[in-house]
From TrEMBL:
CDD domains: MDR6 (cd08272). One of its GO terms (molecular function) is oxidoreductase activity. The lineage of its organism: Bacteria, Pseudomonadati, Pseudomonadota, Gammaproteobacteria, Pseudomonadales. This is Zinc-dependent alcohol dehydrogenase family protein. Transmembrane segments: none annotated. Pfam families: ADH_N, ADH_zinc_N. It comes from the Bacteria. Keywords: Oxidoreductase. The keyword Oxidoreductase applies. Residues 8-328 form the Enoyl reductase (ER) domain. Coiled coil: none annotated.
């Protein structure tokens, strides 16, 4: 095996990514070396490239990319649950000083990955990890979503939002989701009742769908004033608000006067702290089971990108102009020559 590989590197803040040859990593104890077939991109990758994501602790220059799908090619010492040739997926790099997935190979902690869903392509599987883990940590780990509950998802057509909708439905909840007029048909196709947030105020849809009681679980994937709206729409006493973007300054009074609860979701924590990594692998096995049972899919942007188009792909993610998740394919016949 060649001891070098191609990778897309953010060399300095706000500079274009550069595709060049670097040393291929060697798996350390507890790691596996994965031949990357596809690298899923997320808005955080754009923030890191812009030098605007201090919470990700990823100093530049760095190889970007948190999500991946690929094939195990080599095992580090102590790894017993994977073998060369296994197809895997995971959120396993790109922050905290670790190499990202926008490269031919990546050495990853074996606890962070899981067998790839059989019913998803490598491209689709690479789009799932971060958004599904974020959905699960809120809905299941914090709120214990279950049958008989009403769940409201703010931003139901987004990456995390579509996972929240599908996961809540798979666990028997009745699901409602807000979106813009252009996204309502997609939200309905996921099986949720669609709410046009631009044309209906919180109190109106709370009255219409819950007889004024409020929703059992409200998952905010948007942040800002949308989180404030979530506090106003949750059920008294037993209601639970979740947010993966609760980073601003908010008044807790509307939530407190309802006697309801709030949980913040910070999906990166196991990668940054080293604690709880096994749980991420377990969550991804749940994702694979749902996908293989036909209960989980992911909307992909129809535009296809090779490594040589990394800047274009990242621009698409940052500007939010795509029609689904953006993925870079490294083993799909797309050119990977440096631009």
């Amino acid at each position: 095996m060649n001891n070098t590989m191609l990778a897309a590197i953010a060399e300095s803040a706000q500079a274009p990514l550069v595709v060049r040859s670097i040393d291929r990593p060697v798996p350390a104890r507890g790691q596996v070396l994965v031949r990357v077939h596809a690298a899923g991109l997320n808005p955080l990758d754009g923030k890191i490239a812009a030098g605007a994501a201090a919470h990700a602790r990823q100093a530049l220059p760095a190889v970007l990319g948190l999500d991946l799908a690929g094939t195990v090619v080599e095992l580090g010492a102590g790894v017993e649950n994977f073998a060369p040739g296994d197809e895997v997926f995971g959120m396993a790099g790109g922050i905290g000083g670790a190499q990202g997935s926008m490269a031919d190979y990546i050495a990853v902690d074996a606890r962070l990955i899981a067998p790839k869903p059989r019913q998803l392509s490598m491209r689709e599987a690479a789009a799932v990890p971060l958004v599904f883990i974020t959905a699960w940590e809120g809905l299941v780990d914090r709120a214990n979503v279950r049958a008989g509950q009403r769940v409201l998802v703010h931003g139901g057509a987004g990456g995390v939002g579509q996972m929240v909708v599908q996961l809540a439905r798979a666990r028997g909840a009745e699901v409602y989701a807000t979106g813009s007029a252009a996204s309502l048909d997609f939200i309905r196709a996921l099986g949720a009742t669609a709410i046009d947030y631009q044309n209906e105020v919180v109190e109106d849809y709370v009255e219409r769908y819950t007889a004024g009681e409020g929703f059992d679980i409200v998952y905010d994937t948007v942040g800002g004033t949308t989180l404030d709206a979530a506090f106003r729409s949750v059920k008294s006493y037993t209601g639970h608000v979740l947010s993966c973007l609760g980073w601003g300054q908010h008044s807790l009074a509307p939530l407190s006067f309802k006697g309801a609860t709030y949980s913040g979701i910070f999906t990166l924590l196991p990668l940054l702290s080293g604690r709880g990594r096994e749980h991420h692998g377990a969550i991804l096995r749940e994702a694979a089971a749902l996908a293989d049972a036909g209960q989980l899919s992911i909307r992909m942007d129809p535009q296809r990108y090779g490594l040589n188009a990394a800047n274009e792909a990242l621009r698409q993610v940052v500007q939010g102009g795509g029609q689904g998740k953006t993925v870079i394919e490294l083993l799909a016949g797309l050119s990977a020559d440096p631009a």
